[in-house]
Amino acid sequence: MKKKLLILCVDGLDSNKVNKLNLKMKYNLKLLIPNNCCIYENGVYIPHTFTIWKSIFSKKTNKDVRLFINKSILSKFDDLLHRIGNMLKDKNMNKYPFTFPIYIKEKNILKEYNSINWNIPTISIDYIYYLYDWQDFKKYCLHEYNLFKTFAFGSMLSVFDVIAIYTRIIDVYEHIHIDTENIYKEIFLIANELSKKVNVLLISDHATNEEGEHLKYSYFGSNIPIKGNSILDIKENIKEYLENGEYQ
Ligand SMILES: [Zn+2]
Predict the structure, then answer these.
(1) For residue 149, which of 114, 183, 174 has the smallest C-alpha distance?
(2) Ligand 1 center from residue 214 Cα (angstroms)
(3) Distance 156 CA to ligand 1 centre (A)
(4) Which of 61, 67, 76, 206 has the greatest count of CB atoms below 10 A from its CB?
(5) What are the residue boundaries of the structural domains of the chain, listed by start?
(6) Domain 5-29+47-244: which topology?
(7) 99 Cα–ligand 1 center, Å
(8) Beta strands in 59-134 (DSSP E)
């Protein structure tokens, strides 16, 4: 009987904080973020969420992804749209007029298998970028996180062999200085409990510290053996397992 593969994508999960809280999966790696998955600002390379998620799953090189992101309306007009959005904000509804999907229509490794993905930036057609203020966004993130958990719990009943899902709650909560310790504990509880029924990969794109800064390393954990030094090695692990891995 084949075991399904559940890929939990958690934005901003910090492997140092994972250690500090004594959390772990059976196998745990701290991965590096290459410079070409970062935005270069004021002499510093800052990990870029959209580039990294695309690079993790795409067969394209990260350079191609950066090219797309650089050309996109997002990178050129983000600040301008944010300002206009604030001006046009519906005072009664407390809503901003600009929300749009970030989806790059290119092949990715998940498409080569019997898979479903939900809410992963640039990979999932249903991922929505919000121009928001952080406080308003908190409610949406909690709702998104509850959906994430529901999808995770349902993975063992899924008709798909691979289920890949995403939450941005840790990254957003760190940006608005909400304590994330309980979320960390719950995510590891879910990952470890579910790994009794399905195989689980727990992936972050970069660490986000308590000041909301993106740091140049990420966490990669699993109940099955994994290897690699950089986030660009993750897709080889997925491929290796799905093609040659021991299904139980
Ligand atoms: Zn991120």
Answers:
(1) 183
(2) 7
(3) 27
(4) 206
(5) 5-29+47-244
(6) Alkaline Phosphatase, subunit A (3.40.720)
(7) 18
(8) 99-101, 115-118, 128-130
